[in-house]
Amino acid sequence: MTPPPSQVVLVSGAAGGLGQSLVAELARSGHRVLAGWHRTPAPRAPDGVEPVALDVTSPASCQAAADQALARWGRIDAVIHAAGIARDALLARQSPDDWEAVFAVNLDGARHLGRATLPHLAAQGGGHWIGIGSHAGLAGSAGQTAYAASKAALQGLVLSWAREFGARNVRVNAVLPGVLPTPMTATLDAAVLRSYAEANLLGRINDPAEVARFIAFLLTTTNISGQSFSLDSRVHRWA
Ligand SMILES: NC(=O)c1ccc[n+]([C@@H]2O[C@H](COP(=O)([O-])OP(=O)(O)OC[C@H]3O[C@@H](n4cnc5c(N)ncnc54)[C@H](OP(=O)(O)O)[C@@H]3O)[C@@H](O)[C@H]2O)c1
User: Fold this and answer.
1) Residue ranges of domains in the chain
2) Best mutation site among 37, 38, 105 for ligand 1, i.e. most ligand atoms within 8 A of its Cβ?
3) Annotated catalytic residue 196
4) What CATH number has the domain spanning 8-230?
5) Residue 98: exposed, middle, or buried by beta-carbon count in 10 A (0-12, 13-18, 19+)?
6) pLDDT at position 41, please?
7) Left if phi > 0, otherwise alpha if psi is -120 to 50, otherwise beta: which for 81?
8) 111-120-30-110 Cα dihedral, nearest 10 degrees
9) What's the confidence (pLDDT) of residue 236?
C-alpha cells in the first residue's frame, strides 16, 4: 500500500513555532496544507497552503476547518494536532481557570478535532492522525501539573483512537518533539532551558525543523499506528 504523494493535511497551531516548521516542510514535500491559525495570523502562505481560522476549543470551529478542507480538496489525508498551551504553576498557585484552559486546548481540542476529521479519514479508506505530546506527559514535570496531565491524557486518547480506527486503516500516533526553542519556551529562565538540554544525553534540545521532517516521513508510512515517538535523547526504562 502506497500513501498518496500529495496529501491533504490539516494542522492546528500552525502559526506556532512547531506549526510553522510543519507547514513549511509539508508544503516543501508537495502536500496541500490547511494551516489552522488561532490568535496569531498565519504568516504569508507558500504554494499549496491555505490558512484557516481554527480554535480547537470550539467544536464548530474544528468542523468548519474540516469542511473547508473538504470543500477545497475533497478529502483529508492527515491531521496534526500541534496546538498546545502551558500555564505552569506549582500546585498551591494553580488557578482553576488555567487548569481548564490547558485541558481545553491540549486534550479537549484534540477530541473536537478528532470528531470533526476522523470519520472522513475512516470513510475514505484511511489516513494519519498525529497528536503532539510531551515528555512531561510520560515523566511528569514539577510546576507543570496541568500541562503534564493533559499530555498524559493525550497519550491515552491517541492509543484508544488507534485501536478504535485501526480496522479502517486510520493510523493514530503521538509525536513527543522534545524541548523546542519556540514561543512556548521563550519565557523560560536560561538556567531552566540549560537544565532541559543537560537532561538529554546529547546535551542539547531539539529543532522544530527536525521534528517537521520526522512527521513528514511518518506521513509516508502505512503500517505504523498506536505508537509514541520521542524525538530527543532522554532515556527511560524500556518497559
Ligand atoms: N516547545 C516545546 O518545548 C514543546 C515540547 C514538547 C511539546 N510541545 C508541544 O508542541 C506543540 C507546539 O508547541 P510550540 O512549541 O510550537 O508552541 P507555540 O509556539 O506556543 O505554538 C502553540 C500554538 O498553539 C496555538 N493555540 C493556542 N490555543 C489554541 C486554540 N484554542 N486553538 C488553536 N490553536 C491554539 C497557538 O496560537 P496563538 O498563539 O495564536 O493562540 C500557537 O500557534 C504543542 O502541542 C506543545 O505542547 C512543545
Assistant:
1) 8-230
2) 38
3) no
4) 3.40.50.720
5) middle
6) 80
7) beta
8) 0
9) 84
